[in-house]
Amino acid sequence: MVSVVVVSVLFVMRFAGTWLVRKDVPVKADVMVMLMGSIPDRVLEASDLYRAGYAKKIILVEENMGSYRKLEERGAKILSNTTQCFNALVKLGVQTNDITILPGDAQSTQAEAIIVRDFLKGRQETERLILVTSPGHTRRSWIIFSQAFRKSGMKTRIIAVPSKYNAFSGHGWWKHKETIQTVMQEYIKLFSYFVFERRRLDAV
Fold first, then answer.
1. Domain map of the chain by residue range?
2. Which residue, 114, 9, 116, 93, is CA-closest to 43?
3. Per the CB 3.0–4.6 Å rule, which of 36, 74, 92, 129 could disulfide with 47?
4. Of 157, 140, 155, 152, whose CA–CA distance to 197 is shortest?
5. CATH class assigned to 2-203
6. Which pLDDT does position 102 carry in this prediction?
């Protein structure tokens, strides 16, 4: 019995990292959403998809940066992460008119999902939405966005595309401190979503 449990635990642990990576085949979509977080890998992937013609519009959600307003009040103005992403996308060939920045000071992926959903709801029907993020974040973000749109009655297909410029694959995740942290953090956040946050989403 003990050996069965040990084998089962080892099996689950082996695939715990790869399960986090959802890799849908890119198809032409009505819009692309690049989630905030690590900037270089996501910007590179979003610009590649844009230039390849998979989506003509890119949406960014303004990210909460803690006490940055206090800095500005004291005369120390800094570029927000969202502004840095906008500038980098433009440098890589994305037309400024094709980028929409949504306000909201989002503190989580769920907040981004709600802001994007509310922006698109009532507009021309959005059949397909490409979600660009880092590999280890694709499963959770796909779950959250799919739930947010479904609860609002929107039949939008969410297509998760992990950035190929991020080395995380989930394989052998227990071998390095950085990948251990990525996997542990994602499962903690998934637990939080299913136990606490999803209830709030259901109420929206």
1. 2-203
2. 93
3. 92
4. 140
5. alpha beta
6. 96
